[in-house]
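Handover notes (outgoing to incoming on-call)

Open items:
1. Riboflavin biosynthesis protein RibD: sequence verified, structure written out, both below. Nothing else pending on this one.
2. Nothing else urgent.
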Amino acid sequence: MWSTIDITMMSRAIMLARRGRYTTRPNPNVGCVIVDANGVIVGEGWHQRAGGPHAEVHAWRMAGDKARGATAYVTLEPCSHYGRTPPCANGLIAQGLKRVVIAMTDPNPQVAGRGIAMLQAAGIDVCSGLLADEARKLNPGFLSRMERGRPYVTVKLAASLDGKTALANGESKWITGPAAREDVQRLRALSCAVVTGIDTVLADDPSMNVRYQQLGYLQQQLDEDELIQPLRVVLDSRCRMPATARMLSLPGQTLLVSCQAYPAEFMRTLPANVQCLQLPDVAGRIDLSALLQYLATSCNSVLVEAGATLCGAFISNALADELVLYQAPKILGASGRNLLQLPQYQQLSDLPSLQLIEQRKVGVDNRLTLKLGD
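Riboflavin biosynthesis protein RibD structure tokens:
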């Protein structure tokens, strides 16, 4: 069904789409290639920033009159509704495309097949499903939000060879090396929100932001003014957040989540970029399902950087999709602090299902990426 040119051009569109992965959120990453009847690329582009032109617009602007009678390869079904930009399906029709090849339909209820129907009604030959699995990998967070009503959740962990995160006295700086800490900055830059717990804030007073100077090679691909700071989310069920916490004075948005109202005096100290949210509790702790449902209004992907209790809660409640573990070549001993707090499993069949997706060296450390669930 698919020609060599079809596969080559869609592969090119997928590669282009990846260029927007740090800047498009909460929109999906999309790439588009326009090819004339001779198999020559006459236009291409990718979605670069939410609110800006979509991939198809960049491609047809580059193609100009050469778009008429050509074939467009798009990694995601062209939109069919008016948002911050006009519908791309209408634009492709106006440009006189003869054929449109789509990797996958858009699960967004505002699109969900309507873009394809519009193109077909205009007499355009539409084919879909080419390299669909590869296209899905471009947007795990967007797809999770649209299909499951919650963001894609990654739990970041760092431990010694014997599975410890700190010495018994709490000392942990630094278990991992500078290259791994740089890699974490890039993980944050990919995330819509970074979630931590109040105990981590009280113990470490972290910034939980992306530090541009520590992005390493990514600085060559991303200008500092393109960097989008993730939403910093602190789970603080009993309202223990200190007004002097470092992150409260940093640029970017911070969300404090509690199970009760913060005192009025504390609220008066908060800058405008800090918001508070009250959610129901489950056994005295914040309802994590309710938290993810709230974050799904604007967040595709969530990175959890927290202690053993909160990280364990996301895993044991089947709310984590992926683990990223940085394993350092150190041994901290039996009295060191454990990586995760999980239930006392009685049978091997009760253990969380894990699948190793990637393993690679990051400086002196080993980075493991594991998928959770079936």
